[in-house]
Specification:
Helices cover 74% and strands 0% of the residues. The longest helix is centred in the first third of the chain and has 30 residues. The protein is globular, with a radius of gyration of 18 Å. The two termini are 30 Å apart.
Length: 305
């Protein structure tokens, strides 16, 4: 009973962090106008160092086979490289942490289709019903007062880039999860991600003083993103996943838009119409149903904010 309580406490902490990640990203990239690639690169470097320390402390081997190098490169290209470009630019463009979290919450159902396409995994009828439910819910969320602006739709397109990038990550990760620990995979993921983002960082940094990222008010959200969302939350997720199973742990991803919406409302970042609330409810219900599949979802929910 005690172990079960710890597992659920861990998964709730992880989802809470991932829910707030969209708000912290909006504060840095949107409100403080920190260049996106500067923000992502610094987050990747901090995350890579932190994951390496965690891996060494847990005595997790960081050695990888030569024949798997291409897979690790492809893995890091999908996520964090493409994923964080889509997510961060998407959050900045839409200026809506809740909408961003809602779209990102569709990742498990999109990955189900990728799993079915590439690995011939069967999807149950209830899972298909959940997928279909997310479509009208997402439409209700985006047909609001700002939806006529082309930049708004460009932000949504970027968020869907993040969704499909995560799907590509999961499909690639499925070939590695039996050979390496999650800590090893993610340590290399963030390290290679830092390498991928380095040219973008150097080309777009311009005259921006990077040192300001490590001063108030930016340092708090940055450390929260790197340590809590990229390292602490993932560690808690793995802890819970091993004890309550990936399927039950994955269901909790539906909490991410709830956390973002609630926090955004009380922080005065955005308000919601009844149409948007209905859309949120439909998408969350669809995501939960879609994850009720009897198939094993071992590779579906390895990533978040």
């Amino acid at each position: 009973m005690k172990a079960t309580f710890k597992s659920y406490a861990a998964i709730l902490f992880a989802e809470l962090c991932w829910g707030f990640s969209f708000i912290w990203t909006q504060q840095l990239a949107g409100e403080q106008q920190i260049p996106v690639f500067v923000l992502i690169f610094c987050r990747m470097v901090i995350s890579a160092v932190a994951m390496a320390v965690i891996s060494l402390a847990a005595r997790s081997s960081l050695r990888i086979r030569r024949e798997d190098i291409k897979l690790f490169l492809l893995l890091a290209f999908f996520e964090p490289f493409l994923y964080f470009i889509g997510e961060t630019f998407g959050i900045k463009t839409t200026a809506s942490p809740t909408l961003s979290a809602l779209i990102i919450a569709i990742i498990p159902v999109v990955t189900m289709f990728g799993d079915m396409l590439f690995y011939k995994t069967r999807i149950t009828a209830i899972a298909k019903l959940g997928v279909l439910m997310t479509v009208p819910g997402a439409v209700l969320m985006v047909i609001e007062k700002n939806s006529g602006a082309s930049v708004y739709w460009w932000g949504i397109a970027l968020l869907f880039l993040a969704v499909f990038s995560s799907c590509g990550y999961s499909i690639t990760a499925r070939k590695l999860v039996d050979r390496y620990s999650a800590l090893t995979i993610n340590t290399w993921q963030f390290f290679l991600g830092s390498v991928f983002f380095l040219p973008c960082f150097l080309l777009t940094k311009g005259d921006f003083p990077v040192a300001t990222l490590f001063r108030a008010p930016a340092v708090g959200p940055l450390l929260c993103l790197a340590i809590l969302c990229s390292c602490g939350a993932f560690t808690c997720y793995i802890y819970a996943m091993k004890r309550i199973g990936i399927t039950r742990a994955c269901i909790f991803s539906a909490m991410i838009p709830i956390v973002s919406a609630t926090a955004s409302y009380f922080m005065g970042i955005e308000t919601f119409s009844w149409t948007q609330i209905l859309g949120i409810s439909i998408v969350i219900a669809g995501v939960i149903l879609a994850q009720k599949s009897e198939q094993k979802l071992d590779t579906l929910c390895q990533n978040r904010g």
